[in-house]
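Quick one - inputs below.
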Amino acid sequence: MLEEVLFAGFGGQGILSSGMLLAYAAMAEGLHVAWVPSYGPEMRGGTANCGVTVSDLPISSPLVAEPTTLIAMNRPSLDRFEGDVVPGGLVLYNASLIDREVLRTDVRVLAVKANEEAERLGSVRVATNVMLGAFLAITGAASLRSAAEALQKVLPPHRHSLIPANERALEAGARIASRISSKLGLWGPGIGSVQP
Amino acid sequence: MAVSRRRTEGLTDKPFHYCPGCTHGIIHRLVAEALVELGVLGLAVGICPVGCAVFAYDYFNCDMIQAAHGRAPAVATGVKRVLPDRVVFTYQGDGDLAAIGTAEIIHAASRGENITVIFVNNAVFGMTGGQMAPTTLLGQKTTTTPFGRRVADAGFPLRVAEMLAAVEGPAYIARVAVSSPKNILRAKRAVRRAFEIQLQGLGFALVEVLSTCPTNWGLSPPEAMRWLEEKMIPVFPLGEFKVPEEEEQC
Amino acid sequence: MDKVLMEGNAAFGEGAVRAGCRFFFGYPITPQSELPHYLARRMPEVGGVYLQAESEVAAINMVYGAAAAGARVMTASSSPGISLMQEGISYIAGAELPAVIVNIMRGGPGLGNIAPSQSDYFQVVKGGGHGDYRLLVLAPSSVQEIIDLMAVAFELADKYRNPTMVVGDGVLGQMMEPVELGPMPDLVLPAKAWATTGTAGRNTRNIVNSLYIQPEELEKVNLRLQAKYSQMAKEEKRWEEYRLDDAALVLLAFGMVARIAKAAVDKLRAAGIPAGLIRPITLYPFPDIPVTQAAERAKAFLVVEMNAGQMVEDVRLALCGQRPVHFYGRTGGVLTSVAEVTGAAKEIWEVIE
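Output:
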């Protein structure tokens, strides 16, 4: 198993901590992990990215240049990274803030209105974890339970009051992904696409 | 023949290399005597500069470190943080402390680093051949101010004691001279005071010592003493510029 | 054993603490800032001292003083700050003091940028400051290895009474990986009879000094230093080999780039090209042993660096023209990628075949 996940959005969307949450969750399950914050030209312009590698083998390069999954939380992120995703990879994008469809036809796509979902759960700040929940449900890279438990470590103590909202976000994302998956028979071998 | 005066055990037997009439020897002795009288010679770690006193590690009879030019206060900081119960002092000239080492001395003072600084001001770079120092007087001729120091070219002499007294951190700042027996006795009291302050844990203490350089001033030793008193002291007035707070109240 | 996810820069700090270092003197500079942030909290917990100096120049001289006083001490900086420290590093080498310096290298020359780079290789390996001296130089390539090599760095510094530099880059410094910390080691630090701690209780004066005014006397010191560097070269070369046994195309890379190169080796193997990797862990002494050994089977070498070609010179020196040595590098803080390295290697291979 090798998942190279690129989380991308703008500062304040919790991009870095959602990535960290995945890293902690997978580490707790005995997997090799690496978390690398954005580096290079893409760190300009208020964008925030991080690459998370999860593998059952030791990780050679921790740099996510060709992601197996792109989690795009805003339009510039989708514009910039859509082309980098490996063929057959996965694009999860935030349909609340992205007003176009994915152009690639060789990747699996799931659009989630993550901001609306997060607001419904009490805070727009948990939107990226809605996406992480969907990602975990689709790929099984780590369990929801491990991710929920890792919230204790990722969130600083003064933010622990937000743990319940984050747990609900992970669950909501997983539910959305499973519902679509069971309905359309997606996410198995082959290409699927669910866009608004 | 009976020996009436011995060299203090605070100094080694090695003969000084200083020029005739140079007062480094007197200042070395004052520092060494203070360490012996306070009973802390065995606890002392001295840091010597780059300049005429670069070989001071051969003379002070205690553990010594030779530091890069101007950095003695930083080196002393490193030693004192590791060994807070030792007596740490730097011995620096005016090029070392007042030119290249201004940042280190100001910040050691500002941190209130619990060290003692002996600052020897003879208004000239001695070792490198008599060039202008930050403390060179206006009108004073040096090898790099052959027509005399002019404000337009080289600005003003830097008054280190006054400058550091304006910083909050130091506990004790004084300026003394070694130009006469009376002044030497005062200088000795100030040096001893500066070590006592460290032993009491009160913080940064600096004694600026006005000193002679007959060789580079182009004067005989007696003339140099007179020049110090007549020319330097008016620009660099003697006295205590900062003393620990409780004493101020007395 | 339980693993914790740790950031590289923090690992430099924790590794130092676990190696018995209780004194840190430094001046802020990106991209190593998380290291002082970590130690500013951590040092007080272990009864140590964290002090923010007024400059890198002051910081390295504080290190000089603390090392002279017998402590395990470190500083950290990034390229321009390391340049500022060079005089002090030369003094530390000249006075034969043990100290550890971390350099999280960034793009240069000049102010350059804060992006990852390896362009200080010459500076750290060939000297940097004035005079004939050498640093021991270690180059970790993972967060766990940072922890492990910080312990080695302090041991080697004490063993040789020599400054040791540990180099990384902004990616290594800011990435997070799992590390096994285990319980705090119960260290017995070596006695330092030479330290300037005050003469009380001993008959001799200790003097820490690098001034020898008589040329013959200074030459003796230099010969002693050179003998020490020879011993380092004999005893301290470290490296990692990856799929090297039957490699006909041998890649060399250190630090973060070595991980990219390792992934490239796998891609090349998958494409039927017998590639392998030598990852120098010590940059000084340079591990020439695996290079000359690999040359027996290898048809060509490819050195990959995040600079304009620096370590490649040591590879060429080791091979003395025996085999062609190629270079691929990116500069200015641009990260190279697995695809780029694989492409460069394939081009070389096509010419060979």
